[in-house]
Amino acid sequence: MLQLHGLGNGLSTAPLVTNGRTRSITAENPTGEKGQGGKAASNLGTARKGRPCIDLKQGETVTLAHIQGTGVLQHFWITVTDKTSAKGHQDQYVLRDLVLRMYWDDEETPSVEVPLGDFFCNGFARRSNVNSLPISVNPTGGMNCYFAMPFRTSAKITIENQHAYDIGGFFYTFNYTLVDELPENAAYFHAQWRRERLTETGKDYTILDNVKGAGQYVGTYLAWAALERNWWGEGEMKFYMDGDDEWPTICGTGTEDYVGGAWCFSNLKTNEPESYSTPYLGYTYYKDTTEIDPWSGHQVPMHGMYRWHLPDPIRFESDLKVTIQQIGHDHSRLFERSDDVSSVAYWYQMEPHADFPALLPVQQRWPR
Question: Is residue 212 helix, strand or coil?
Fold first, then answer.
């Protein structure tokens, strides 16, 4: 993890006093200005929880934080409903309909562009608890991020409501430190979401490509909907770096192996997948209702998992591409699969970054 003049989030830095200036942005103090917190009034009077949250109008983009100066965003917390009503299935996908974006140093294109739920390892627009080092999601839907995010002149974080309705009760806190300067090798945080609703048989799914410059890859979230029978997770994770062409420098041994699991995540007593969540590895979501009455809104098997490369970042000097295969096993042999795969890539790099692929329209982001 970055150690920025004692601004890292490890226990070893806790005793180190620095000249950093701690600030926090909330709905009550939207600029993070010193001495301006908690002034709004409620029915209890002034300074009694007068503005704890905001509402998001349909189609609106709201700037949650706009910080001027040099500093490091160290933690932020967000919570919001995951559905707006019971009128129809489109009302249940708030976590895919809200888009989180981040901009560093007045850049025109975002360095982070991810549906809100997926950024916090809550794919399929469904809540699940996560107990990892950089991402923590707690009951009920308390989403926390601890990735250090340095900036030299400014930071801007926005949320866009692409949901069909207004959304009330959007709560947030951004905790950051202003500093006099940053180390020259302090890179900028990036995160990008992708999806293929139907992957091409025999062709690896691309998690990230067109990354140019120096940096390090620090994490992956996968939301994998299995569209074929039998085991789905034999595909290998590949990292092409610094001029790799046909063959990658790093190639894994299987999908569940990549996230630290084994043997199909199976519980030996039930033969059902067993979830887990650890500081760097997790398989946090499993849902399969394919045997339920088809009129009840059944779902294909859905699997959510993460892998953080914080102790072992994938370092690159000039370029990076990340892919994963779709390979299954039918108890006798391997076979090529076609599934519905979504992903978030998390990495640091020096700016400028290449423009991201266009984000899929809102209905094409909805889960099956």
Answer: strand
Q: If you write DSSP's letter for every residue of 96-130 in order, what string do you get?
A: HHEEEEEEETT-SS-SEEEEHHHHTT--TT----E
> Cβ-count burial of 91 within 10 angstroms (0-12 exposed, 13-18 middle, 19+ buried)?
middle
Question: What is the 3-class SS of 286-348, one letter each residue?
Answer: EECCCCCCHHHCCCCCEEEEEEECCCCCEEECCEEEEEECCEEECCCCEEECCCEEEEEEEEE
Cα 183 to Cα 152: distance, rounded to the nearest angstrom:
10
State phi, psi for 94 to the nearest 5 degrees. Answer: -55, -40
Nearest Cα residue to 110 out of 148, 52, 160: 160
Using alpha carbons, select from 359, 303, 6, 335 the residue that is nearest to residue 148. 6
pLDDT digits (tens, 9 = 90+) for 264-305: 999 989 988 999 999 999 999 999 876 655 555 678 999 999
Q: And the tokens for 191? A: 């995160």
Q: Produce one character per residue of 178-212: b if its CB has 16 or more CB atoms within 10 Å, e if not.
A: bbeebeeebbbbbbbbbbbbebeeeebbbbbbebe
Question: Whole-prediction pTM value?
Answer: 0.96
78: exposed, middle or buried (Cβ count in 10 Å: 0-12, 13-18, 19+):
buried
Please list the rounded mean pLDDT of every run of 10 residues in the chain (368 residues).
50 86 97 92 90 96 98 97 80 96 98 98 97 97 98 98 96 97 96 98 98 98 97 98 98 98 94 95 90 66 97 97 98 97 98 95 96
SS3 256: helix
